[in-house]
Amino acid sequence: MGTDQVRSNHATAAKVDMKLEVVVIPVSDVDRAKEFYGRLGWRLDADFANGDDFRVIQFTPPGSGCSVIFGKNVTAAAPGSAQGLYLIVSDIEAARDELVAHGVDATAVFHDGGVYVGTDQPYLFGRLRVSGPDPEHRSYRSFVSFSDPDGNGWLLQEVTTRLPGRVAGNTTYASAGDLSQALQRAAAAHGQHEARIGQADPSWPAWYAEYMVREQAGEELPK
């Protein structure tokens, strides 16, 4: 097959939607895992058994388009071997508070120190964790980690503004909370806009809409 044909095939494949909707996590005690993920407030989608040799449970985190499944004879992977499972949130402190309220032993908020320190508690290839959120509150830079009873490792990552190209199609929000927080950021930015122009802006709905669409697409924000 020639190079041009390969490129053509790649271009064609890129146009086919491939939506990641399920991640398998290995657990040793199915009922214990079910209790843990249910306690997080995640939606229980299925608990299906076929005799004594097979059972599959599916949970979906709030606002997520991807679910997790675990069970009996679902995977041969070692329990606890799933690491670096990212949960994207728009308010890292509020998300951590909710985890703690549900009895989860979550870390304090931390950010990347930019130095490799080893593989303990894997995070971004073992780089140093520095206590507190990113000093400049940049998107993608603040984290919280926690583990399920088997040691499968999860990371909360705060994302408020997407990098260019990270959002495809129409602007959407995963939950009412995400939309509310986006409106609050737009309102704060619009207040600064009105202060600059020295008067109330009667076109504020259009300004809000432009701000929110650009923010989610990672484009330059309106002034």
N-to-C SSE series? HEHEEEEHEEEEHH
Report the major sheet.
Answer: 5 strands, mixed
Overall number of strands? 9
Number of helices: 5
Q: Which stretches are low in confidence, meaning pLDDT under 50 for 5 or more residues running?
A: none
Query: Gyration radius, to the nearest Å?
Result: 21 Å
Strand content: 15-25%
As a percent range, the share of helical residues equals 25-40%
Shape: globular
What separation lies between the terminal Cα atoms?
A: 51 Å
Widest beta sheet: strand line-up: 5-9-8-6-7
User: On the 0-100 scale, what is the average pLDDT?
Assistant: 85
- Give me the secondary-structure category: alpha+beta
Explain what the structure shows:
By secondary structure, the chain is α+β, with helices and mostly antiparallel strands. It has helices at residues 3-13, 30-39, 92-101, 176-197, 204-217, and strands spanning 22-24, 43-49, 55-60, 67-72, 85-89, 110-116, 127-131, 142-147, 153-158.
Quick take:
Helices cover 30% and strands 23% of the residues. It is an alpha+beta fold. Helix 4 (176-197) packs across helix 5.
Task: List the SSEs and their pairings.
Blueprint (H helix, E strand, L loop, with lengths): L2 H11 L8 E3 L5 H10 L3 E7 L5 E6 L6 E6 L12 E5 L2 H10 L8 E7 L10 E5 L10 E6 L5 E6 L17 H22 L6 H14 L6
Parallel strand pairs: 1-4, 5-9
Antiparallel strand pairs: 2-3, 3-4, 6-7, 6-8, 8-9
